[in-house]
Amino acid sequence: MDEIKGDGDDGTSKGLRLTLVRNVRHTDSCLVLLKGNDLEGNLLKQVRQAAANKMRIRLSQVRLFDTSGKEIQNEADARASVVNRATLFVSSGELCIVKAAPSAGNKRAAASKVVIIANESLVEGPAIDQLNHAAGLPGVVLAVGLPDLHAGASCPIGAAIATHRMIYPSLVGSDIGCGILLAETSLTSSSACKPRTLDRWADSVQLEDPWDGDYSSMLEKAGIKPTQFDRESLGTVGRGNHFAELQVVERIEDEDAAAALGLTERNVYVCVHSGSRGYGESILHTYSKQYGGAGIHLESEEAQCYLEAHDEACKWAKINRHIIATRLVDQLNAECTRFLVDISHNNVVKLSEDQNLKDAGLDEVVEGEVYLHRKGAAPTDQGPVLIPGSRGAFSYLVLPNPPNSTSKSGWSLAHGAGRRLARNAARVGGKAQHPDAKELLITDLLSRVVCDDKGLLYEERPEAYKDAACVISDLVENGLCRTIAVMKPILTYKMRDIYDHRK
Ligand SMILES: Nc1nc2c(ncn2[C@@H]2O[C@H](COP(=O)(O)O)[C@@H](O)[C@H]2O)c(=O)[nH]1
Ligand SMILES: [Mn+2]
């Protein structure tokens, strides 16, 4: 440790002079002198205590970060980072908001900025590392982590990343066009919310077989070219965290906005989370074979081909969600009466002229076209957004607040609660907690779950996700949206083993 002589109060003992900067407002800072005697014990404890006193934060809430944004979590971290004349960022629980450190040999990274919007939501180190890494990629000018930020296989999820002159298929991921649809159905909540009705529906619905509707003319009408995936995959949900769910209104928080949408406590709604299935995956595969995780120059023919294929996959994913919603409701002898929301949370779009980076505080002026990659981030310029929680938690129908939706939030909202547990951890913990997986077929909200795959039942249990209420309150506190209504799941369709089901 680099110590300083004569900086202690007695002018002789060795001590540390630190600058503490408030994470949320960088203009709030103060100087702290730690006496040499204090440093013999637990350094982290001393610094946290000093930060709590000076910044009037409850000690239990204090979090410390070094200037690269790395959290100082234990004594070893403190001994490495808390050197004399160090600057430390102090948060009262929220994550740090600091500029990404430029990586060696990568000049562009110096212009990039990292923002994490999370006051209360849990955001873990690996997710921040992935966001920082993305911020350092050539051409990346802005990397925003929303409160549902979590680590993906290699790129962060719950992130909006702006690039200049480059396109990164890896930052959109394989499920191009994945998104959330919400439609009103002709079912009424009074008749649907009866346990016997829900059990009967849970026993009967099935979305695994290829859809037998006229998909060709549907695709043609939407101007989508036929693909090898149409017959088998259109109208099917897919694995992972995709689902089709019946929901009812738990409570309305904004009467006017709900009335404008025609949202009522009387109706049952259907929510679909699905994407472009194998189609999007095949597109990413083509590019990752050639480029790995690297970017493609916007002007290149490859980038233009990717963007065209991407746009087709987004349209395909939209039709897919429509078919899934109609198909599910049809099996309950009802119909979708109105489509209220359909947004994609995995895509790349060109920023419009009024979406500029002027207020992003970048070191360099960015001229020309900027593309925004969303991986698990909902757009704020397409009306209401449904932010799902988990099959055992409430979902939130929110209205974005466009004036506050700027580069500071990547023109985005969270797309869900975001994963808290990796799949493996959720499976192992789930098995220990519920040796009989069947317990998971009814949630704490008494909603029914259709999932014949035991592993998936564990992996997707509600505890695998962050607290959606916390994610929403972070968005609301940051002025990014307001809640129209809170929705409760009553039946979630994940997957059915059709061979067993037909027996
Ligand atoms: N209402 C439900 N929400 C769910 C369920 N499973 C997951 N989720 C939420 O959706 C998002 C989607 O995330 P993505 O990264 O796969 O696009 C996820 O973060 C959860 O919050 C469910 O069964 N019902
Ligand atoms: Mn998705």
Task: Pick out its properties.
GTP-binding, Ubiquitin-like (UB roll), 503 residues, five-stranded mixed beta sheet, binds ligand LQESDW3C, tRNA-splicing ligase RtcB, globular, alpha+beta, 28% helix, metal-binding, disordered N terminus, RNA ligase (ATP) activity, ligase, eight-stranded mixed beta sheet, binds manganese (II) ion
How would you describe this protein?
With 503 residues, the protein is of the alpha+beta class. α9 packs antiparallel against α10 (301-330). Among the domains are: 3-91, Ubiquitin-like (UB roll) (Roll); 179-274 and 314-341 and 382-501, Alpha-Beta Complex (tRNA-splicing ligase RtcB). It has 14 helices and 21 strands. Manganese (II) ion binds at residues 175, 178, 273, 275, 345-346. GMP binds at residues 241-245, 395, 415-418. InterPro entries: RtcB, RtcB-like_sf, RtcB2. GO terms for molecular function: GTP binding; metal ion binding; RNA ligase (ATP) activity; RNA ligase (GTP) activity. Mn(2+) 2 binds at residue 273.
Which architecture of the domain at 179-274 and 314-341 and 382-501 would the CATH scheme give at its second level? Alpha-Beta Complex
Count the beta strands: 21
Main β-sheet, in a few words? 8 strands, mixed
Radius of gyration: 25 Å
CATH class of the domain at 179-274 and 314-341 and 382-501: Alpha Beta
> In percent terms, what proportion of residues is strand?
25-35%
- What's the CATH H-level homologous superfamily of the domain at 179-274 and 314-341 and 382-501? tRNA-splicing ligase RtcB
CATH topology term of the domain at 179-274 and 314-341 and 382-501: tRNA-splicing ligase RtcB
How does the helix and strand content classify structurally? Answer: alpha+beta
Distance between the termini: 70 Å
Instruction: Figure out the total of helices.
Output: 14
EC number: 6.5.1.8
GO biological process, one term: RNA processing
Keywords: GTP-binding, Ligase, Manganese, Metal-binding, Nucleotide-binding
Binding site for Mn(2+) 1: 175, 242
